[in-house]
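User: Quick sanity check before I run a bigger batch. Here is a single chain. Can you write out its predicted 3D structure?
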Amino acid sequence: MPACHRCGTAFEEHGLVSRGASCSSCGAALKTCHNCDFHDTRSTNECRELQAEPVVDKAAANFCELYRPNRRSPSATPAAAKDAKKPSEDAFAALFKK
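Assistant: Done. Predicted structure follows.
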């Protein structure tokens, strides 16, 4: 089941996800690059789909016809990954604290 890129809340997809669809928990747009299965920061234009038009704001709703909701776990989303790094960064900083 796809999950919101911002908060990780799972959402139901009934056919196509509309451009105006938003997360019931945090209100973030659901049809975004960050929420797409093709989104990959290592690829050209951060998209594995070669026919996709470049999108400037990856977190904003867009009109991409190639959008496919991701199936990754919420822990694989950018916001969750950022939160997961915090404890390890704090532990590392504590090593060098005087």
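The first helix runs from residue 78 to 95.

User: Great, the batch can go ahead then.
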